[in-house]
Amino acid sequence: MAFKYSIISETIGRIGHYILETPQPILEAIKRAGFDAVDLPGNPPKLDVDKFRRLLDSTGLEVNEILGAWAYHHAGESRDLAGDDVQARQRGIDYGKACVDLAAALGAKYYQICASQTPVPQIPFPKLPMHVLRSNFLEGAREICEYAGERDITVLFEPLNRYEAYSGILTSVFDAISLIDDLGLPNIGVQPDIYHMNISEASTTSALLAAGDRIKVMHVNETNHCFLGEGHADYPAILSTLKEIGFDGYLSIYMGLVPPEISYRAGVSQEAARPGLQESLERQINFLKAVETSVDYQRRLYGSGAGYVTREGSAEAGESGTKY
User: Fold this and answer.
1) Does residue 309 surpass a pLDDT of 60?
2) Which of 42, 157, 167, 263 has the fewest CB atoms below 10 angstroms from its CB?
């Protein structure tokens, strides 16, 4: 089965295009590049639902997910679900519910939760005991997830690396699995992110295998935040593992970052160093589609389900039942 592709629209700001400011040309470019869907920012006050629904209908794009702004540098306020600030935890719960409503209004299936650090990160060890942080996070997440369940929205737990989230609360795929098991709710999944996995997981592929069908969306984010292929992620292994576990959700791609030192060394402005919108979108999706094509070929040729041709010329099927 071929993967479906979405773009995390807010990250297009890395190349100077902002989805909430000029949505129509950006959405049209996303569609032309070959994407099936778009992930929209969780910003209820600034996202005009009626306008976006009209634009999405005209382009034929789906909304895969509403992405939460949980980090202080994204949100401009603390929405810390795990810490000891009661007001911040309530802000996080209220914000989460507002984003769930936004997801429902736009026809999205998913909404994402992280366990971001305080405005001043507590690294490497948080001040509160881990069992207190975990209990606080579970309490807030449960309220959001139950609210989402009533609106047919699935909540995705995205593990962040230990420098951006409370260490041990939701910093690995295994943390996410444990939290989901403790909550015991049917509408929760895992959303791994290659960038964060590069820091937090001992083995990216082993973590994906462990999560299995809990993975609903996969964030494809280069290990250094740059364009795909400019880091050291093993995309053939990652995509092959996702196919092995039967993943049928979206690969949600981040826009590549052009590091400021590149423009500095070249003696040009950051704006001049940025590639064009259409070029950048096509570069990201075409890279991943090429890897998928290669993986599919390798699986057909060498996979355990690949068939073979007998001496008599009849096709014998492998374990999968497929004949070649």
Assistant:
1) no
2) 263
